[in-house]
Amino acid sequence: MRHRFVFIHGWGGSRNSLGALAKELQRLFPQGSDLSLYMLELPGFGDTPIVEELNLKAYGKFVLENISLIDGATDDSIQLVFIGHSVGGKILLQLASSANLPTHSQLVLIDSSGINPKNSLKKNAFKFISSLYAPLKLLLLRLGLGKLQDFLQRVFYKFVVRARDYEKLNDKPLLKTTFKNIIEEHISIERLQRIAQKVLILWGADDQVTPAWMATELNDNIKNSEKIIIPNGKHGLPLQQPELCAKYIFNFLQN
User: Each residue of 79-107: pLDDT tens digit?
Assistant: First the structure.
């Protein structure tokens, strides 16, 4: 069988981020296999510029445009596999739940975002602290205490998962607003239940960015899905343990 793999990195990554995983996966196939690997790079990362504010749908459109360039992507005799890490997985969820991916394709979601972290204690704390901090920030600026305000802002950002990523984008306004759009968009349970593709959900048990309960929610609502939790694995699972991830992906495809 011919295989076509499409890799989509997470936030802050590049086309090279999942290179080790791709290499390990390629090594597992017999020599001479008809195998092609496509390493996508999202606008705003690596060498790919961002020219306008984007959201999840816009990133999905970018992925679809690149898929159209893959030889045989619509041929159901080809095993077409999409592998998305973190935000890359979120983009795949958006596309699959909107029926924009070939139904014969298969998805691998690794520590994917996309589930609304409504049960997150940290998220609720952030909302509460936000309501207190906003008027304080305004008062400090009016009093000319800008340096104190900057210090408190850095402390403030530490109360929410990945908020430091947002802070780092002060000199990249397009990417900063795009980041805000992405983290505020979620895939509903109803949309998850529309996904027709076969899906492997690969997760680190100790992921603090997208906790493992999210993997369970995906598994419970995507009808044709399989969940594997990696002990001691963290959010950077495909970067830290590419050999193990490749093994599970290869076995999933063989089945």
Answer: 999 999 999 999 999 999 999 999 999 99
